[in-house]
Amino acid sequence: MMIYKELALYGTSEARLDITRGIKKIKDFMVPEAGVNSAKYKTMMTMHNINGPDRFMILNGSRFHKSWGIIIIILLFYTALVMPYRLALLEDDTNIFFFYLDTTVDFLFIIDIILNFNMPIEKPYQAVPIYNRKIITIRYLMFWFWIDLLASIPINLIMKLVIVESDDLDLSG
Asked: Has this prediction a pTM greater than 0.70?
């Protein structure tokens, strides 16, 4: 009843208010490319794998994803705060506890690299997750993989192996 009063007041016809005119399906209204270029729509759906993740994909917001994120944040705080303090101010470099702790942190970062290949990424400027493994791999390898790889090299373990092997060498000839 209210709309008819506004129509009479503003002089608009009902034909101008018919938003469903020309829309055959709701999909055509929500995704304009779907009705006009159905091949383009199917390609887009296939490229981003909208059908859903495979069974090994770790879903955003899952309990494991949240728990792993908390573990990584704790490891990053340890790496950023405790390790520089130890390196700069502590003279005891032979503490076996810190050796095993640092090695464990490095291996957890290596596990994080593997898990990053199994986590969907979000399309930029949209909240649409991309489950396509090819796109995930390409985007991860383009930048973050190399930073993560360099950061996760177990330097303590390598140094321990190199020092132990060099101590075993007989340099006297």
From this structure: no
Pairing relation of β-strands 121-122 and 129-130?
antiparallel
Give the integer Cα–Cα distance in Å for 112 and 106.
Answer: 10
How confident is residue 73, by pLDDT bands cut at 50, 70 and 90?
very high
Whether 58 maps to a domain, the answer reads no
Cβ neighbours for 129, distance < 8 A, ≥ 6 positions apart: 60, 120, 121, 122, 123
pLDDT tier, 48 (very low <50, low <70, confident <90, very high otherwise): low
Rounded CA gap, 82 and 86, in Å? 6
Burial of 156 (0-12, 13-18, 19+ CB in 10 A): middle
7 in a domain, yes or no? no
pLDDT in tens, 86-123: 878 877 666 788 888 988 999 999 999 999 999 988 87
3-state secondary structure 93-134: CCCHHHHHHHHHHHHHHHHHHHHHCCCCEECCCCCCEECCHH
End residue of a domain, out of 9, 30, 51: 51
Instruction: Give the range of the structural domain holding residue 32, as residue numbers without chain letter.
Output: 22-51
